[in-house]
Amino acid sequence: MLHYLDLSYANFSGKIPSQIGNLSNLHCLDVSTPYSALRVRDVSWLSALYSLQYLHMDFVNITSTSDEMFRALNMMPSLLVLHLSICNLRILPPTLPFENITSLSVLDLSVNDFNSSIPSWLFNLSNLTELDLYSSSLRGQLSRLSHLDLSSNSLSGLVPATMGNLSNLDTLNLEGNMMNGKIPESIGQLTKLYDLNLLKNNWEDLLLFSISSKRNPFALKVTQDWIPPFKHLYQVEIRDCQVGPTFPNWLRNQMSLENVILENVGISEEILGWLYNMSSHIEQLDLSHNKISRYLPKKMNFSSSNSPKVNFAFNQLKGPIPIWSGVTALYLRYSLLSGTLPANIGEEMSHLKELDLSNDLLNRSIPLSITRIQNLSYLDLSKNHLTGEIPVFGMGMQRLEIIDLSNNSLSGGIPTSICSLPSLFILELSNNKLSADLSSAFQNCTSLQTLSLGNKRFFELLSRGNTLTGSIPEELCRLPYLHLLDLANNNLSGSIPLCLDLVLKGRLIEYLNQMPVHSTIDLSNNYLPGEIPESLTELTHLGVLNLACNRLIGNIPNNVGSLTDLESLDLSHNSLSGPIPASMTSMTFLSFLNLSYDNLSVQIPVANQFGTFNDPSTYEGNPQLCGGQLPTNFSLFFPENGAQEKKHEDGADEDDDKTERLWLYASIAIGYITGFWLVCGSLVLKRSWRHAYFKFVFDMRDNLLVWIAINLAGVKRRFGLERN
Q1: Dihedral sign, CA of 137, 139, 140, 141?
Q2: Which superkingdom is the protein from (predicted)?
């Protein structure tokens, strides 16, 4: 008793025998064979297979009418899976005498030229989970559906994840049903959606509400008196949608709210007091990138045990910095807050780990109490109007890793206590009014010889744009993980320390375990005298070297070409002399070069990267330097030698050209002959290879024709073209 008959990929051709209908106990029949010549005209024998559950007839040319085909299929009450792809079917019957295939779960009618409307009986297949109508020339709005209204029905269960495939949908209304469970993430694929209505469903158990819109402004609008059916949300996350201008009042009914993230949602009016009253159990409050222009409450008590974080960055707030006890991270950058830092910030906000008040309007000095926040790891007060001296950071701040005080008006020196911070790896002091003697600022940094930061950490020292004096201290050579040294635009004097190679030598850091970071030295715009130390050429992973606008003399080190990773080199506006070292042509990563206004001489190299530096400003201000990039002719200095060398070079170039042309023609001929006989000779000599080759060519031709036919049908459907 046969239950399973699989004749797929058997390369049969001709008419399918009707005697298969005698196998009444058959459960599975598969006669699909790609690009086969199988055909069937009388399909009445199919109705005898009343036990059939799986029927695969893809690529079979069915010449009977569609009514006859589906009338026979309708006699199979057990049918679960039906595949009729590329069967040359013409019309889907609009109705069926009786619908007996309600058990069907998979239906594939793709790549048939139905040229008809979507029949209503398709929507009565209650067990259908997969429906493939690709390239079937069907008319209707389902494939380009933009408005879907299923409101006030009895739909239950989950919102199907396949809803996200309706890429043109701009309105989805599921109001008044019995939907429940989790809203699928695929809804986020509806990039054109601007109206989503999920009201009056069974969302009582909703715990997390998240929505964002990256492209089009999505509006989430509810009335101010709306009371949601769910009351136990613990997190609401709405980003880049239109919620404001008022704060969503429906959140006040949530009894377990812990995380409130309303980023870039257009809120501009005052935040309601009930939200501040919930601060005792808030873990995260993010209202950044809005237009809030009100005063923040002076005091709030964030007593949650899970390290509460508050972010009001990128707003238009008024008033001074608030005191919010219990907060572990406070971000108020670009919020237009003014006034002074609270004098008691260290006592009242002692739990702070991260504090970002950059790009605000703060003034006066940094309070000493800030040094009492023992758990602080990140401090950014940059781009304000702070004055006074840098506070003395003591040994109690063991976790402080980043200090950014740049772009203020701080004066005085750099406290030597900086060296007592064991975890510090970024120090940014640029563009202030610091005027200390740098040679003594790091004299107590000897303990950093045993700084344990691991191989994936680095130390940055940025103090550009101040009025620091003195020489570059050799104590910097004892910072074993120094990666970025920027002391530009100061008044430093004294020669460059020979020991800098001990700091950066051979170091290539993996920043955040992903991006390789090369070292940087910028000592430009100072008064550094003397020669460039040869030891700098041992910094094998140096990426940027800027020594411009100093008082350097002597030659460029001959071994400078060993800096193979160097991408930017600026030695301009010094008194360097001698030739440009030939080794520099091996610096193949070099993309920026400035050697202007020195006293360099002789010929400019032309190999490798130097062939790309065609801007004369790269070398201008060197009267004895010559080359193709400059109008200066080297023969003006040595006319006889110049003429002889030019004649010799012209002759050598002519010989080289002849040799190169000869080898070119010879290699073309050898390659052509070899390739021709490898391919054609093997086909002539090997009969089986010859047959296989031509079979492959014919198969590719057939595949191309099928592909053209499929896509042509899709183009017809897309542009509404129909057959007459």
Answers
A1: positive
A2: Eukaryota
User: What tokens does 491 get?
Assistant: 């008044």
CA terminus-to-terminus distance, the chain: 48
For residue 50, the surrounding DSSP H or E stretch is none
**Identity of the residue numbered 388:** G
State the virtual CA torsion across 248, 253, 258, 260 in degrees, nearest 10. 0
pLDDT value of position 500? 62
Amino acid, single-letter form, for residue 632: T
Tell the residue number behind the tokens 């009786």, with chain if given: 98
In tens, the pLDDT along 100-113 reads: 777 888 888 888 88
CA distance 698 to 693: 9
Q: Is residue 436 part of a domain?
A: no
Q: How far apart are CA 234 and CA 502, in angstroms?
A: 53
Domain count, the chain: 2
Query: Over the stretch 642-687, which tens digit does the pLDDT of each residue have?
Result: 444 444 445 555 566 677 788 888 888 888 888 777 777 777 777 7
Give residues with Cβ within 8 angstroms of 399, minimum separation 6: 353, 374, 375, 376, 377, 423
Is 404 a member of any domain? no
Q: Hey, what amino acid is at 598? A: D
Query: 123, 140, 157 — which closes off a domain?
Result: 140
For residue 365, the one-letter residue type is: S
Tokens of 152: 């006030």
pLDDT for 216: 56
User: What pLDDT score was predicted for residue 475?
Assistant: 65
Of 58, 47, 115, which Cα lies nearest the Cα of 81? 58
Alpha-carbon distance of 267 to 262, in angstroms, equals 9
Name the residue with higher pLDDT: 457 or 150: 150
> What per-residue confidence (pLDDT) applies to 331?
96
CA of 510: how far to CAs of 456, 480, 538, 667, in Å?
6, 16, 20, 45
Tokens of 331: 């971000």
Last residue in a domain, options 118, 140, 162: 140
Q: Is residue 722 classed exposed, middle or buried when 0-12, 13-18 and 19+ CB atoms within 10 A define those classes?
A: exposed
Helix (H, G, I), strand (E, B) or coil at 124: helix
Q: What is the CA angle 564-430-382, rounded to 5?
A: 120
Question: d(Cα 17, Cα 26) in Å, to the nearest integer?
Answer: 15
Q: Which of 303, 304, 312, 299 is nearest to 264 (CA)?
A: 312
Q: Is residue 672 part of a domain?
A: no
E strand map for 398-469: 402-404, 411-412, 426-428, 433-434, 459-462
With residue 330 as reference, give the H or E element that holds it. strand 329-331
Spatial contact of 95 and 69, defined as CB atoms under 8 Å apart:
no
Query: Of 234, 263, 418, which is closest to residue 331 (Cα–Cα)?
Result: 263
Q: What is the structure's pLDDT at 375?
A: 92
**HEC per residue, 20-42:** HHHCCCCCEEECCCCCCEEEECC
Domain with 133 in it? 4-140
Residue 552, strand partner residues: 530
Cβ pair 165, 187 in contact under 8 A: no
| Cα 679 from Cα 686, distance rounded (Å) | 11
Which residues, other chains included, contact 427 with Cβ-Cβ below 8 Å and sequence gap of 6+?
403, 418, 459, 460, 461, 462, 463
Query: Per DSSP, what are the bridge partners of residue 385?
Result: 363
CATH number for the domain harbouring residue 77 = 3.80.10.10
In the numeric block, which tokens belong to residue 554? 């002597």
CA distance 176 to 153: 7
Structure pTM? Answer: 0.57
Phi and psi, residue 332, nearest 5° = -130, 25
Cβ–Cβ under 8 Å, residues 87 and 112: yes
Residue 154 in any domain: the answer is no
Is the Cα torsion angle 282, 285, 291, 297 positive or negative in sign? positive
User: Out of 219-233, 469-483, 579-593, 657-671, which region has the weakest mean confidence (pLDDT)?
Assistant: 469-483
